[in-house]
Each structure stands twice: as C-alpha cells, then as structure tokens.
C-alpha cells in the first residue's frame, strides 16, 4: 500500500500548505509584458511557456524567428493554472485542504505604478477560487512590494478582509535589500497585526558561479537542491541578526523547505554569535538575548517539504513536531516517468518521511499531516 | 561538573580530529611574501598578524604608514603556532590524541614553482611535531595543488612514508575549478591508494553580496556560520554529481562541520536528481545508481563540529554514529570573556552535544569522542 493510500484509509485530515498556482490575472499580466519575465505561446510547443530568466533572452529571440527552434522557459501546464487540475491533484493524493499561493517570482518585478492593482486582481482571483470550494481551499496572498508603503498597507487591509486568506507569500528580496531592511518593519508589523502568517519562499538562489564550470552537466539540481534552501537560510539569519523577530514579536513565519538548512545550522549560528568579537564588544550578545533556537520554537513554523526522515527529524528537534506542516510543492517536481494525472513520487517522499519519522497514524503524524495547519492557520474558521 | 571534567573522569579516549596549526615553515613563507596572503608584525599589536583577504589591502597600507592605525588581519596568537600551547589546550580539555592539520588557505595560493618544496617543509614540520609526542599527535598533510601532477604525486608518496601522517587536508578549490574537476581524479586515486583520508575543509565561502548591504553589522557571523558549511555542501554535491565517489571507490573523506548541511539536504538532493528532466533524459538516474545516502554511509565520515544536538542527530541519522568524529576547531572560536588558557566554551558545546545526543558515557559517545577516529584513522598504529 502506498503512503497516499494509507492517508486515504485513515481518518486524518491532510492539509497541503505548500502548493502553488498562477491565477488568470497573473498569466494575463505576464502575457502582456514585452520584457522577461513573460509568458508566450509558441507554435512548436503545446503549452504556453513561462520565461523567467534574463539568460533566456537569446533563446526567446531565436524561437520567435525560427518556428523550429527549441522554445525557451518552462511549460505552463494545466497544473500551474487550472483550478480543476489542482482539485484533481488534491483528490488523487487524499489532500483535504490546500493553502494555495502564487509561485515565484510573485510581484517582485512589477512596476510600482501598477503592482498595487495587479496584486489586488491576483488576490481576488485566489479568493474567488477558494469560494468555489469552501473549506477545501485557503490562500496566502501576494504583496505589491514594489509599490509605496501605503499601497502595501492597503493590500494587507484588503487581504485581511478576504474570507479565505490566511497569510502572504514572501520572497527573500523584500523591498530589494533583503528581509533585514528596516523599511520592511512597518510591513511586518501590519502583517502581524492582521494575524497574517508569512510564508517565506526562495526564488533568487545563489550567484551562478558558485556552481562551478561543470554546472550545466547537472541539470537544475544544484540551484534547486542547494541554492533555494541556502537562500532561505541566509534570509532568515539576516532577519534574526537584525532583531526583526524581537522588534515584531507577533510576527509568524512558515519557512519553505523545512527552513532551508536552519535547523541543522542553528547551533553553528549561535556559536558564531557567542564567539564574534565585534558583536560581543557592541553588547549584542547579552545573556537575556533570545537565541535563534527561541525564534525557531516561538515565531517560526517549518513546512515538511524536506524529502527525508533525517531532515524532518532535525526540523522537529529544532521547532517541535507541533510546528511542522505537510506540503507538496505542487506543481513543481512532477513525475517524469509516470502519468502526471496519477500519484506523484515527490508527494509520496514527503508523506513517507513523516510516517517513518513519527510513526504512521501517530498523534504527531496527524499533527504534521494536517492538524497543526488547521490549528495554526485557523482552517476550521470558514467565516 | 563541566562536560570536560566528565571527559576526564571517564576512561574514554578523546580524539580531536579537527584542530589546526600554522607550523614554522608556513609562517616563514607567509612572512616573506609581498602580496596577500601574508604575515606582518606591527608595533601597535602584540602578536604577528595574518592578513588573508584582498579586501584588507588598504588597511594593510594604512597600518604601514601610520603606527596608530588599526592593524589589519587577525592575530597569530601562540594558539596558532606553538606546539606547547596545543599540548596545553589538549591537557586542559582532556584530549588524548589530536590529528592536527594546516589551517586555511593551505597552499592554494603558492606559486607552482615552489609549492612542492614549501609543502614538503610544512609536512616535515608536522611530522617532527608528532614525533615529539608519540601517540598523542598525528596529522593531515598539505598538498601542493598548484604544482604539476607529478609534484603532487611525489607529495603523496612523501606523506605516505611519514609515520604519523593519516591523510591530507583539502579545500574546495582543488586545482582552481572545484572538486568535480576530472583533473583531480588521479590525485584522489593516489590518495585512496595510499590509504590517506581526505579532510575536506571550507575556506572560500560564498560571494560577499549574498550577505546583503547590512552584513558589516553582523561581524563574521554570516560568512562563518553559513558561508563555510554551504561551501562544503556545494563542493561535495558537485563531486557526487560528477560521479567522483563511484570513480574512486576507495576514496574516504571526513567532511568538516558535520558535512556543512549535507545531512539535512541529502533528501532534497535526491529528489531533485530523480525529478530532473535533463538527468533522466541522459540516463543518469538509473535504478542501480548509488544515492547520496549511500556515499554518506560508505565513503564519508563527518566531524562532530556542529554545536548542537539537533545537527548531530541529523549527522548520525545520515552517516551513522560509527562515522562521527569529535573535533574542536582549535584555535578558532577562542572564548572572548574568559581566559584562553582555561576551558573553551566552543569545545564544551560540541562535547555537550555528543553527551546529550547519545548519552554521556554510552558506547556511541565513546565512539564519537574517540574510538571511531582510532579505528578509522589507525591511531593505535604508531609505527
């Protein structure tokens, strides 16, 4: 019996808190753009293509001129855009509730003059989708971070009023200077005040040269497997060192991919802080300071998208099994050798890691697979 | 009772496999250099200073011209250079055996025409030190990687003949292109053939811009706590993707800082490989392929320098408690508020993590604290 079949047979409510969609307003905006990122349809490809990277500019031009050229970017299959497909995926994997979010790069690139309006349309799209499946769908909204602070504040007010919104998805760039930027503090405060949880998700990775001259031989493994979690770890550590968690004590964040590598590195971070001459001289290492461990246990939740019992064990040891939340990362990592309409191995790996780490059907498993998310994100409040 | 006092009272043999020294031949070579890295003495500082970074060039010039200017670099205290100090440190912390190694940046910057000779002098220095304390000191040699292959091979032959040598310390640069460089294969083969274990240690970190515009406020925390382990993780993953472990099946590596973040990320690496279209198309994801988990359990050892029970737990789950090796990272991370001649908090943090993870005095603790190193590095063979 597969893990997903076991999920079906139990009474457990399964919640997927890490699952993405590009709603119609987002695709429309990308299709209308003349510069990357953008969406284009090519006669030589069945699905529209999402072109995200500046490095794809040349192949974009070639594909325009030559209908035989390999189209750039990646396909926007129905998994990215169709609500029906999302529901099918949920049913196939016995997922009762999904908290959907816009996939990267969110609104990070949108011109300041329009990002407020674009964000509002996208958030309304998500709200409409949730209304079609009451109780089965909730969402994390997108913030128009390129817009003036007042527009961002209005967006938070708007999200607060949307019945199925439970937080916002955030990249690590913030206003362009990272999440330790003091100009973000009023935004974090407004989010905390509105009880909107921040789902922190990577997009920018690490500079390409760290992967070395042979990187092209390794597909996307290095930037995806290492760059993404390292980006998240750096972003949160910078927030911690800038005392953001102390300054906005009610801020709550779900960290993608079980915190990147934060549970594993927290001890080293603490040791480096205690042993840093500059920080000690500046009086920043006081005895009553909250450690990164405190933050992990008090203001951070971790998703369980770590694909192993080993990683999950460390995540639990760091934050507590009551702060771990199952997720799938759908529609990323589709199966390559089996039918995309069937079970996805990537989902099974994460569900299986939970079962092996805490025992299938155990109270902890029930928590991680769904009950924690219901409690933390108030998914039993439908009104 | 402190952890170190408990170590003293037990019958356990304690081995420190991660402990550095700059022997006389290395300091002499650095003192004779006109370009960074170099060693200089300044009237305004009690100890000679080691200047490693190109970014310190300006403050080096200023300190030369102005005796009141803050001297660049970091102090080379007796902890870095004195054998007597190393023995005092070992006695204070009840360490029975140390496997010493040259600290970064090793010989990575040394001109090809002299690196062979410099390496030989340094390795002889280490050998001489070990001979003064038979059975208490062993060492990992340094390789003259900038020299021609034949010189590197001769260095390996030389090291193989040195009674107390048990391996080599290696950075992640290799011959300048990283450890997935095919030109390194004959060197890995020669090391494996000579039963010399590779101690892989970071030095290059990550590009500075990943730490953001406020990095200077955080001392050295970000590059040391995150950059170092991330560098190690990237280097080993590149080796794995280039099939180095399959090609040199007898290669054995100890990874500094418990593998950087490899135990935590191994699941994600495996998932990204299985789901990579390019690798699957190219037939690189065959069913009988050895996974990164296999390599962690068969060809990798992890030091226990991770400063937490959480990290240590993941390291054990990934590689097995019989492959974990206690280390101190001496003389880095000295205590800032207590006497350097007494107990070091950084050592206690790691010893304490072992005691808490597997139980003080347990068979596993005996293994991690010393017995594993004795078995793996043949530290009971004195001849």
UniProtKB/TrEMBL annotation, chains A, B:
Q: Which GO terms describe its biological process?
A: secondary metabolic process
Q: Does the keyword Lyase apply?
A: yes
Q: Which GO terms describe its molecular function?
A: carboxy-lyase activity; hydrolase activity
Note one Pfam family from the annotation: Amidohydro_2
Q: Which UniProt keywords apply?
A: Decarboxylase, Lyase
Give the matching InterPro entries: ACMSD, Amidohydro-rel, Metal_Hydrolase
Q: Which GO terms of the cellular component aspect does the record hold?
A: cytosol
Pinpoint the Amidohydrolase-related domain residues: 102-359
Please give the superkingdom of this protein's source: Eukaryota
Write out the similarity annotation: Belongs to the metallo-dependent hydrolases superfamily.
Q: What is this protein called?
A: Amidohydrolase-related domain-containing protein
Q: What is the lineage of its organism?
A: Eukaryota, Fungi, Dikarya, Ascomycota, Pezizomycotina
């Amino acid at each position: 019996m597969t893990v997903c079949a076991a999920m079906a047979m139990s009474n457990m409510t399964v919640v997927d808190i890490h699952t993405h969609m590009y709603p119609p307003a987002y695709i429309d905006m990308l299709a209308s753009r003349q510069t990357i990122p953008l969406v284009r349809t090519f006669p030589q490809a069945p699905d529209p293509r999402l072109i995200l990277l500046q490095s794809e500019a040349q192949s974009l031009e070639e594909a325009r001129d030559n209908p035989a050229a390999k189209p750039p970017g990646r396909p926007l299959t129905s998994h990215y855009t169709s609500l029906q497909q999302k529901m099918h995926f949920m049913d196939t994997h016995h997922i009762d509730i999904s908290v959907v979010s816009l996939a990267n790069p969110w609104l990070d690139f949108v011109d300041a003059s329009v990002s407020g309006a674009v964000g509002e349309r996208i958030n309304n799209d998500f709200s409409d989708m949730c209304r079609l499946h009451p109780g089965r769908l909730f969402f994390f909204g997108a913030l128009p971070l390129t817009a003036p602070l007042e527009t961002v504040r209005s967006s938070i007010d708007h999200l607060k009023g949307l019945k199925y919104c439970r937080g916002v998805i955030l990249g690590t760039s913030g206003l362009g200077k990272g999440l330790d930027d003091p100009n973000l503090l009023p935004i974090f405060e407004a989010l905390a005040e509105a009880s909107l949880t921040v789902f922190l998700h990577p997009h920018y990775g690490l500079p390409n040269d760290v992967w070395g001259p042979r990187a092209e031989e390794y597909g996307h493994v290095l930037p995806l497997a290492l760059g993404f979690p390292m980006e998240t770890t750096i972003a949160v550590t910078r927030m911690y060192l800038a005392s953001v968690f102390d300054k906005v004590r009610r801020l709550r964040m779900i960290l993608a991919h079980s915190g990147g590598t934060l549970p594993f590195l927290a001890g080293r971070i603490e040791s480096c802080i205690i042993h840093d001459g500059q920080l000690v001289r500046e009086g920043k290492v006081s005895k009553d300071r909250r450690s990164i461990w405190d933050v992990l246990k008090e203001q951070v939740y971790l998703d369980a998208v770590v694909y192993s019992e080993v990683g999950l064990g460390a995540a639990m040891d760091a934050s507590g099994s009551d702060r771990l939340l199952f997720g799938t990362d759908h529609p990323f990592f589709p199966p390559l050798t089996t039918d995309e309409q069937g079970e996805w191995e990537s989902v099974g790996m994460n569900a299986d890691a939970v079962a092996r780490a805490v025992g299938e059907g155990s109270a902890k498993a029930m928590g991680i697979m769904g009950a924690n998310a219901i409690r933390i994100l108030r998914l039993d409040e439908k009104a």
